[in-house]
Design goal:
The structure holds three protein chains of three kinds.
Chain A lengths: L8 H7 L4 E6 L7 H11 L6 E3 L11 H10 L4 E6 L5 H13 L4 E5 L20 H13 L16 E6 L6 H14 L3 E6 L3 H13 L7 E6 L5 H10 L7 H8 L6 H18 L3 E6 L8 H7 L10
Parallel strand pairs in A: 1-2, 1-8, 2-3, 3-4, 4-5, 5-6, 6-7, 7-8
Chain B lengths: L21 H9 L5 E5 L10 H18 L7 E5 L5 H18 L11
Parallel strand pairs in B: 1-2
Chain C lengths: L1 E5 L2 H7 L5 E7 L2 H4 L5 H17 L5 E7 L5 H4 L11 E4 L4 H9 L5 E3 L1 E11 L2 E6 L15 H4 L16 E2 L2 E5 L1 H11 L4 H4 L29
Parallel strand pairs in C: 2-3, 2-4, 4-5
Antiparallel strand pairs in C: 1-6, 6-7, 8-9
The chains are: A alpha/beta, B mainly alpha, C alpha/beta.
Chain lengths: ~300, ~110, ~220
C-alpha cells in the first residue's frame, strides 16, 4: 500500500512540506487544442498542478475532463475541477473514473456558479448532490473503492481530493465551520477564492489555525493578479462572493494606466510573500485569469522556482 | 353653483371608489364606452381608509390590460377630489371628455357604441 | 397552496384565435386563493378577451363557469352537459385542471390560461413565495424549519455557497440567500452544530425524478386501484 492517497505530484509536494504553487487554465470556447497547448507552455515547470476549470461562470467550454487529459498528455499535472451544476451522480462517477483512467490524480469539488450567470441561462440545473457530498463521494470511491450504491469498483480512482473555500462570502462567522465540514467530508486540500482583502483573510486564517484545521488539510491561498483598475472594479461589482477593498482599487488607479498591470503583479507578489510566512497556509493557488503568459514571470519574481521534485 | 359638465358623462354613484372593481371598468369598455374614469376622494381622506388607493391600483391594472390588447390606456383614468370641490368635478369631466375626444371613438365596437 | 400566474392576453388570444365560442372555467381551489383563476379573474379574462376580439372585429362569444375544484372528477363531471357546446375551453386552474378536463372530455380542446409556478404562500397581500419543491422526503426540521431544496437556487444541503453576499443569493440581489437565513437562525439558537455533519445523499426517487407519483389512502379506496 502506497503511503500516498493518490500519489499525485501535488500531494507529494504538500506532504513533503514544500510550499505548493498551483496554477489555473480555462479551456477554450471551442475545440482549439493548439491555443490550449500554447497556454500550457506558460504553466509547465512553473506550477505543481494546473486547475482545469469546469464550465467556469456557467459558460460552456471544452470539458474539464478533456482539458485535464490534454494537460496530462503534455506532461503537466491536472487538477480536474468538477461542479455539481451540470451532472447528476451517474455522470459524475463516470467522469471521475474516466478522468482517473486518463491520468488525472487531483480533483477540485465545487458547487458551480449558477447557470443564470452564464451563456445558457435556460439550462436545467442539476445539483443531484452538493459540493460537500461530492467531496465525500470522491473519497468514498478512493478509500472504500465503492460506488455510492455500495457496489465495488473494479480499479478505484485514487484522487487527491480538493475543495474550495470562500472566506469572503457571508455569513462570515460560519465560513470556518463550513471549511471544517469540508475537511470532515474528506477534503485533502483547499484552494481558496481569490484573496484581495488581506486583513480579513488573516483573521480567517487565525480562526482556521485556532480550530486546528490546517493540521488536517492543506490550505492553498488563492491569488489573482489584477490586470488593471477596470478589472478590479468589474470583479467588485459583478463577480459574486468577491471582496475587493477600495484601497486596492485606489492603489491601482494611483499609477499610470500602463503601469497598472505591474502594480497588480506587485500586489500579488506581496501577497505571496506574506502567505509563505502565514501560519496554516501550505501554498498558493495562482489564478491568472486569461493571463497565463505572465505566470512564468510571477513565479520567478515570487521566488518559487524551480519547483521541487518529490519522488 | 350652477356648474355645467358635458352631458355625455354618465355618473354612476358608489358609496366609495373602493367598491369599483376591475370588471366594472372593463365591462364599460367592452360595452363600447369611449372612456371611463373613477372620481375618488382625495388621497389620505378615504372614509374607509384606503378605498380610493385600491381604486387607483385597479385603474392601473385596467390600463395595463388595455395596453396589452392595443386599446389606448388613456381611455381609463383615476381622479381625486373632495366632495366640496364642485368646480373641480366639472373641470375633471371636461378634461376627461377632451382627452377621450382626442383619441376618437372607441375601437371596441360593442352593442351600445355610438 | 399551488401558485400560478396568468398567461399574457396575447398568448391566450393566440390559443383561441380561430374559435368563435369558448368557455372560460375557473377553479375555487388554490387559484382562487392566489387571485389568478377564481370567479373574479374568470370574468376579467373573459371581458379582456371580448374587448380584444371586438377591436379586431371578430367577436368572440364567451361563457364563464367556476368549478368547486378542477382536480376532482366529481366536480369536473358537472361540465358534462355543456362542454360540447364550445369550440374550445380555457381553464384558469393550475396545470392539474386542464388535464382532468381533457381526460374526462376527450373530444374537447382545453387551453391552460395560467402558468403554474410553485407551492407557496402569501408573504403579504399580493405577494406569493415558493416554500416547497414537493421532493417527497421532507426534511425541513433539519434546517431550522426552512427548506433549502425549494429555496436555495442550488438546492444545497450544505450551504451557503461562495456566492452568498449580505444575505442575498448570487442569482439575484432581490433573492434571499436561504442558507444565510438558516445559518443565522441556528447561530441565534446556539445550534450551529446541527448543520455541520455531512448529510446523506438525497434519494431523489421520491421526487419527480423517480417518475410520476401517486398517493394512496387505502382506507378510502373502494374497489380496485
Amino acid at each position: 500500500m502506497s503511503e500516498f492517497k493518490s500519489g499525485s505530484n501535488l500531494e507529494k509536494i504538500l506532504k513533503a512540506g514544500h510550499f505548493a504553487f498551483t496554477g489555473e487554465c480555462g479551456p477554450p470556447k471551442g475545440a482549439n487544442v493548439a491555443h490550449l497547448k500554447e497556454k500550457f507552455q506558460y504553466l509547465k515547470g512553473n506550477v505543481d498542478a494546473v486547475n482545469m476549470t469546469d464550465n467556469q461562470t456557467a459558460v460552456v467550454r471544452m470539458s474539464s475532463l478533456a482539458g485535464s487529459a490534454l494537460l496530462f498528455q503534455e506532461g503537466l499535472e491536472p487538477n480536474f475541477q468538477m461542479v455539481c451544476r451540470d451532472r447528476n451522480r451517474l455522470a459524475m462517477m463516470a467522469d471521475i473514473l474516466g478522468a482517473y483512467a486518463l491520468g488525472v490524480r487531483n480533483m477540485l469539488c465545487l458547487s458551480g456558479d449558477h447557470q443564470t450567470f452564464g451563456n445558457h441561462p435556460q439550462a436545467k440545473n442539476v445539483h443531484c448532490i452538493d459540493s460537500m457530498q461530492l467531496i465525500a463521494m470522491v473519497k468514498k470511491m478512493r478509500d472504500e473503492e465503492k460506488f455510492l450504491n455500495e457496489e465495488d469498483i473494479d480499479v478505484a480512482p485514487k484522487m487527491f481530493v480538493g475543495a474550495a473555500c470562500n472566506p469572503f462570502a457571508d455569513p462570515y462567522e460560519y465560513r470556518v465551520h463550513r471549511l471544517a465540514s469540508k475537511i470532515d467530508a474528506g477534503a485533502d486540500f483547499i484552494q481558496t477564492q481569490c484573496i484581495f482583502n488581506m486583513e480579513k483573510f488573516r483573521d480567517f486564517m487565525k480562526m482556521t489555525v485556532d480550530m486546528g484545521l490546517h493540521e488536517k488539510c492543506y490550505i492553498l491561498a488563492g491569488v489573482t493578479p489584477m490586470k488593471n483598475a477596470g478589472m478590479a472594479n468589474f470583479m467588485k461589482k459583478f463577480v459574486p462572493g468577491m471582496d475587493i477593498p477600495d484601497e486596492l482599487i485606489k492603489r491601482l488607479k494611483s499609477v499610470d494606466k500602463k503601469e497598472q498591470a505591474e502594480e497588480g503583479i506587485k500586489f500579488a507578489l506581496e501577497q505571496i510573500e506574506e502567505f509563505k510566512e502565514m501560519e496554516g497556509v501550505a501554498g498558493v493557488h495562482l489564478m491568472a485569469i486569461e493571463w497565463e503568459q505572465r505566470v512564468p514571470e510571477i513565479a520567478e519574481r515570487a521566488n518559487v522556482l524551480p519547483r521541487p521534485q518529490v519522488d | 353653483m350652477r356648474l355645467s359638465y358635458p352631458t355625455n358623462v354618465k355618473v354612476i354613484q358608489v358609496p366609495c371608489t373602493g367598491r369599483v372593481d376591475i370588471i366594472h371598468l372593463l365591462n364599460a369598455i367592452e360595452d363600447g364606452a369611449d372612456g371611463v374614469y373613477v372620481a375618488g376622494c382625495l388621497e389620505g381622506e378615504c372614509h374607509y381608509i384606503a378605498g380610493n388607493l385600491k381604486a387607483r391600483r385597479k385603474v392601473d391594472y385596467v390600463k395595463r390590460t388595455l395596453e396589452e390588447i392595443g386599446v389606448e390606456p388613456e381611455r381609463v383614468e383615476m381622479y381625486n377630489l373632495s366632495s366640496a370641490q364642485g368646480a373641480r368635478f366639472a373641470e375633471i369631466a371636461n378634461e376627461m371628455v377632451e382627452q377621450v375626444a382626442k383619441l376618437g371613438p372607441t375601437p371596441v365596437k360593442g352593442s351600445c357604441a355610438a | 397552496m399551488i401558485v400560478a400566474d396568468r398567461k399574457s392576453l396575447e398568448e391566450i388570444l393566440s390559443m383561441v384565435e380561430t374559435d368563435k365560442k369558448i368557455l372560460v372555467v375557473g377553479c375555487k381551489g388554490c387559484v382562487t386563493v392566489c387571485n389568478v383563476g377564481g370567479a373574479k379573474e374568470v370574468e376579467v379574462l373573459a371581458s379582456a378577451l371580448k374587448i380584444a376580439r371586438k377591436k379586431a372585429e371578430n367577436e368572440l362569444e364567451i361563457d364563464t363557469h367556476v368549478l368547486e375544484r378542477q382536480c376532482d372528477n366529481e366536480y369536473v363531471s358537472q361540465l358534462g352537459d355543456t362542454v360540447g357546446d364550445y369550440d374550445a375551453v380555457v381553464s384558469m386552474a393550475c396545470g392539474v385542471g386542464p388535464q382532468f378536463l381533457s381526460e374526462m372530455y376527450r373530444e374537447q380542446v382545453f387551453y391552460p390560461a395560467v402558468n403554474t409556478t410553485f407551492f407557496g404562500g402569501a408573504t403579504q397581500h399580493g405577494v406569493w413565495e415558493e416554500r416547497c419543491a414537493g421532493c417527497g422526503t421532507c426534511g425541513i426540521h433539519l434546517f431550522g424549519g426552512i427548506c433549502p431544496i425549494a429555496r436555495c437556487a442550488k438546492s444545497l444541503l450544505h450551504g451557503p455557497c461562495g456566492g452568498s453576499s449580505n444575505g442575498a443569493c448570487e442569482v439575484n440581489k432581490d433573492t434571499e440567500c436561504i442558507w444565510d437565513t438558516i445559518v443565522k437562525k441556528k447561530m441565534e439558537q446556539g445550534k450551529v452544530d446541527d448543520l455541520l455533519a455531512v448529510k446523506g445523499f438525497k434519494d431523489w426517487r421520491s421526487a419527480r425524478d423517480g417518475g410520476p407519483r401517486r398517493s394512496i389512502r387505502e382506507e378510502l379506496v373502494e374497489g380496485n386501484i
